[in-house]
Amino acid sequence: MRSSHILIIGYGNDLRGDDAAGRVAAERLAALQLPDTQVLSVHQLMPEHAALLAQAQMAIFIDADLNDCPIVRVTHLTSGASWSVIGHTATPEGLLALTAAVYGQAPNGWLIRIPAIHSVFGAPLSRRAEDGVAEAVEIVRHLISNR
């Protein structure tokens, strides 16, 4: 049985500069203690997250975008993709597909991509990524309030 809660998963490598943007956004959202919201900050998406997704009404994935896009991008996701895995990692779409295949249901999904400039080991977030994190937090708050 699906609950009414929202699952937010921020992911990326927190040792590699802007690649940590998704995790930083998740940690800022966790600090807000939004009602009916569970927040995870993880290194990568894994098949094990499917059990949590099956219980959620809405899932919001947050990641860094190292493809030289200067703006925060928001994409609505469906579970229509097929599940595939390379090693032990997953994509948001694939994870929703796995959730639907195993549990017979998947939440409404969103992917927020934060613009990133570099993924240099030990570097702090760039100004672009910091601004993107702040914008992503506001976008998540908007998505939650309009669900």
Mean model confidence by pLDDT: 90
Spatial strand order of the main sheet? 2-1-3-5-4
Percent in helix: 25-40%
CA radius of gyration: 14 Å
Instruction: List the secondary-structure elements in sequence, H or E.
Output: EHEHEEHEH
Low confidence ranges: none
Shape: globular
| Number of helices, where a helix is a run of at least 4 consecutive DSSP H or I residues | 4
Structural class: alpha/beta
Q: Ends: how far apart?
A: 19 Å
Give the strand tally: 5
Strand content: 15-25%
Question: What does the main sheet amount to?
Answer: 5 strands, mixed
Features:
five-stranded mixed sheet; single chain; 4 helices; globular; alpha/beta; 147 residues; 33% helix
Report on this model:
- It is a single chain.
- By secondary structure, the chain is α/β, with parallel strands linked by helices.
- It is 33% helix and 22% strand.
- The protein has four helices and five strands.
- A five-stranded mixed beta sheet has the order 2-1-3-5-4.
- The longest helix is centred in the C-terminal third of the chain and has 19 residues.
